[in-house]
Write a structure and sequence with these properties.
Length: 296
């Protein structure tokens, strides 16, 4: 594929323009860092992409229609797609900012998750904008025309957006917790984790791994599976133990330890509650059944 990429590095201004793209989900257009002279003004007539700016220091203003937003260090502002805007640096304390311009089928959704939209074009960063500076610089330094550099640039773009989304999520701690995925997705993810790590995990481990709180995990398990995660985990382990009692010659101690019960007596008690027999009697019963079938 023919590609045209230009890389500029002039005093107070660095910009990378990546014109071709390999993905439609999210792709980089250009980014840069600029220290503005006093009163510097820029007009965006009809932007074709999303422009995200991070104020590193100084002050300035963003004007969208009849609304004016006064901005300062660590503020973040969005130039929405298809919306004419104007912004300018303060005369006495002109700002220095960095920006990243991107588009793609998921761009609007990612920005929304970060709390940015045409209706809410500015937010104040809970972490210094300087934290994002190394990521912008890494993108700018990847100027050579290689496919792996292109992938890396988009990777840094994802990292920037994911950090913004994480920051926005942390601001919701005083409100009702909202999760990004469906109940089915969280339950499937939990079941996968249990399948791979059932030996020595707790319900809290499952919730932490998925990224939801324990009470929500319990509620979605009961809703989808009619059982709590604690009961599901216990039954999952006991089902494995029952199969091993039937199909292997492993000792009861080995089986108990293998599913996370260091005390075989505790294992035997829980197993009997679930299956109505001790592990030893269960094994004998299953062997008798097998012998009976073979004899017939």
């Amino acid at each position: 594929m023919d590609k045209q990429t230009t890389y500029n590095n002039v005093a107070g201004f660095r910009c990378l323009r990546n014109i071709q793209r390999q993905t439609n989900d999210l792709y980089l257009v250009h980014c840069g860092i600029q220290k503005c002279p006093p009163g510097y003004t820029y007009d965006h007539k009809i932007p074709n992409e999303y422009h995200l700016h991070f104020v590193l220091q100084g002050t300035g203003a963003l004007i969208i229609g009849d609304k004016k937003y006064d901005l300062k260090t660590d503020d973040i502002f969005l130039i929405p797609k298809g919306v004419p805007i104007r912004y300018h640096a303060n005369y006495e304390n002109p700002w220095e900012y960095m920006w990243i311009t991107f588009d793609g089928e998921m761009a609007k959704a990612y920005l929304s998750y970060a709390g940015l939209s045409e209706e809410t074009p500015t937010i104040h960063s809970q972490i210094p904008s300087q934290v994002y500076l190394p990521l912008i610089q890494k993108i700018l330094d990847l100027n050579q025309l290689t496919f792996f550099n292109e992938i890396r640039r988009v990777g840094y773009l994802y990292e920037i957006l994911s950090s913004l989304i994480e920051m926005q999520s942390s601001l919701k701690t005083n409100r009702k917790k909202q999760y990004d995925y469906s109940i089915d997705t969280y339950v499937d993810y939990a079941l996968q984790y249990i399948k791979l790590h059932y030996e020595h995990i707790t319900v809290q481990d499952i919730a932490d791994y998925i990224g939801i709180n324990r009470s929500y995990l319990t509620s979605i398990f009961k809703k989808q599976l009619n059982v709590s995660p604690k009961e599901y985990l216990m039954r999952f382990k006991l089902n494995i133990a029952a199969k091993q009692l039937t199909d292997t010659t492993m000792s009861i101690q080995e089986i108990a330890t293998g599913i996370g019960y260091d005390n075989p007596l505790t294992f035997s008690k829980i197993f009997k509650q679930e299956y109505g027999n001790s592990p030893r009697h269960y094994r004998e019963e299953k062997r008798d059944e097998t012998h009976s079938i073979h004899a017939d």
